[in-house]
Amino acid sequence: MEKWFTHIVPNQFLFLNDFLLAPVAVFLIWILAKTYAHKQKSAIYKKYFVQAILVRIGFSILMAFVYQYHYGGGGDTNTFFTYSLTLRNILYENPEDFFKLLFLSPSDYFLANKYFAPGTEFFVNASSNLVIRLTTLLSYPLLNTYILISFCFSLFCFYGCWKIFKLFHQLYPHLEREFAFACLFIPSVCFWGTGILKDPLCLGALGALTYHLYKLIFERTKVFKRLILIIFCFWMLKNIKTYIILSFLPAYAFWVFFRYKELINSRILKGVMSPIIFIISIGIGIFVLFKVAAFSDRYALDQLMRTAKDTQNWIYYSSMLQGGSGYNLGDIEYSTMGLLKVFPKAVNVSLFRPYLWEAKKPILLPAAIEGVVSLFFTIRLLYKCGFIRFTKLIFSNPEVQFCMIFSVAFAFAVGFTSFNFGSLVRYKIPLMPFYFIALFILADKDKTDLENTAPRKKMPSKKPRPALAIS
After folding, report:
1. HSE-up of 221 (CA within 13 Å, CB side)?
2. Within a 10 A sphere around the Cβ of 226, how many other Cβ atoms?
3. Phi, psi of 420, deg, nearest 5
4. Residue 414 — φ and ψ, nearest 5°?
5. Do 57 and 140 form a contact (C-beta atoms < 8 A)?
6. Handedness of CA 148, 152, 51, 181 (dihedral sign)
7. Cβ neighbours for 94, distance < 8 A, ≥ 6 positions apart
8. Which of 30, 31, 52, 39 is nearest to 169 (CA)?
9. How far apart, in whole angstroms, are the C-alpha atoms of residue 81 and residue 34?
10. pLDDT tens for residues 53-82?
């Protein structure tokens, strides 16, 4: 009977307990979400909260089925879960080693090699290790069931996306439907923001960090709680994907300073403060980059270029062998000037590719359609506004500046290093909500400005009626 329930077996992570417990979990999540939404005062909870959660749960189940039955149980999600099962088994062999591996630093290579050889490198890697340990911790209250642990990862990702939606809806309440799509219902984000993977953790932490930092800086409410959440999210992102922090913090610094500038009433003072704020923001961004690079040599510029050079050709070559989903950016000169030359190509590949004719696998088709949609909206805005006015609209709005700077910087980071569309569509999900938010705000601002500047038609004046002669 035990063979029907979760145990270590190659290329399998779904068992009978997953199929028995998943419907129960879905029902409980639906009841809890509905109860929570009913208690909230904001109308957006009643409109979107339950619906969005059920969509995420549905995509979480879909991802599990795709990886188990379409990919034959392969992929990172199975790897993380299998390592977690191995770690659980150590508890019965040697409890002392189990607690060391679960709670202490993963840098003890010899201890890890004792149990995880030949895959020790994967276990001691900081980002992979965090996911494995989190999966192991969740496996005890969740009955060692993949689908239930996957629901937790998916709900954390949803939490971050909901916080992004809630924040920007507070700033632009009339764009409610547009922001709901951008934050809650983009298909590729819903799909790749699920499962036992790094990506749902990163997007969840990024959304929570965006929301709670803004609330802490501008509203100063629930200070202690927000500080704890900010530290936790920052720690999680630093350990899993540091390049998200490298893209996020400089952009956020721009947003904070330019948002403060908008609070100034004097036009003269605003004009004086703008260049000062711009210089301070750039200074903070450079300071963050150098501090992170100094803290971790892996993220120094020369090391990043060496790493990219070592991995890009291999990723492209291997992906072409396995089905042709690789891409390249042409001949790359691995220098500062070379990075500047390839910058537009890398950004383009993240924001708008794969094109429809490049989606050779069915799983890439939704991402290709989203690329067409984002390209259409971008070109339409540029055509309507013109390049100069389009640029002015960006620089006149702090929220758009933040979203655009982060999206473009992050798009370059993943576009320059992925070299495989299958990986790219997963890695780029943190930028998707922010890029679409920027497009929706720009379109609304352009429409509003045109309405305000359009000459109003004068109503024809009515001629006074002649007085009736009284005989």
Report:
1. 6
2. 20
3. -150, 125
4. -80, -35
5. no
6. negative
7. none
8. 52
9. 30
10. 999 999 999 999 999 998 888 889 999 999
